[in-house]
Amino acid sequence: MDEIKKNQIKLSQLLALVAVAECKNFSEAALRLEISQSAVSHAIASLEEELGVVLFYRGRHGAHLTPVGERVKVHATQVLRLVNAMKKEADLEKGLQGGVVRVACFRSVATHILPTAIAKFHTICPDINIKITENDSFLSIEESLRTGFADIGFTYLPSSNEFETWEILRDDYIVLLPPKCPLETTQISWQQLAGFPLIISSLNPCYDYIIPYLNQAEYPMKIAYEIREDSTIVSMVEQGLGAAIMPRLAAEPLPIGIKECNLPVPLQRIIGVAILANALHSPGVYAFLDALKNTGRFADKMPV
Predict the structure, then answer these.
(1) 188-217, pLDDT tens digit by residue?
(2) How far apart are CA 291 and CA 276, in angstroms?
(3) Nearest to 259 by CA among 205, 183, 171, 154
(4) CATH homologous superfamily for 170-269?
(5) CATH architecture label of 83-169+270-298
(6) Which among 193, 197, 199, 201 is positioned nearest to 219, based on CA atoms?
(7) What is the distance between the alpha carbons of residues 55 and 39, in angstroms, rounded to a whole number?
(8) CB contact at 8 A, 142 and 276
(9) Is 180 exposed, middle or buried (0-12, 13-18, 19+ CB in 10 A)?
(10) Alpha-helical runs (H) found in 95-126
(11) Tell me, what's the pLDDT at 127?
(12) Are 134 and 110 in contact (CB under 8 A)?
């Protein structure tokens, strides 16, 4: 206890350490934590000064943990998990009379699924706040669940057995064609698809879905662009730069004029909701899952 009293390590420093380690970038970590980049830099610098070691290599290619940084990050993650468990114990005591449910998701889920679920949840639990964090990939969402940054996460199924999951919906991949494309069809063939420069997502798992899918094609495919943002992909199609292969929810709403058609062979992504298995969850978390279960077209996807 004497050593703890002497040290001035703060939770904000540990949060910054884990965020930078996962994002490998100070600015992206700042966005995740919803603070300034200078605040993240100060937190890491002060933690390094407190511990007397260098935790990150800094360079043009981002920030990467040093060997001692890797070991410290393991302990920091454990501390944050314990603090999160303390918070959950308090939330359990409060029941449904207050607290926060933290939801990690990606953009298409935030746009098309969450608003209805949140509205329904607030009719049942008006005193519980919902905090939404949008992530680029399902991998960062699952890491948020592991480290206690999120209570509920939307991810791709199947997932690992460390999570308890429920299927929400199956989202078809579609082809988007430019407005001036003369092709008029709702079902594109491999040969027709091979005639377009293709625009695809550079993010996993979309990239890992699409590349093996295209490898089965009867004709060689030309991938012209790999883009991170869904909205950028749609805009590029709108400008006639190529055809895009995207999940339907990620593409919507489509600008007027862009043509939509089915792939030569169906391809789907399975979207599910997940919580950490064998963990302590507040009543608010289960209430939100119930609200999601009973929301519109997803009602038959989740078990009672």
Answers:
(1) 999 999 999 999 998 877 888 899 999 999
(2) 18
(3) 183
(4) Periplasmic binding protein-like II (3.40.190.10)
(5) 3-Layer(aba) Sandwich (3.40)
(6) 193
(7) 16
(8) no
(9) exposed
(10) 107-112, 114-124
(11) 83
(12) yes
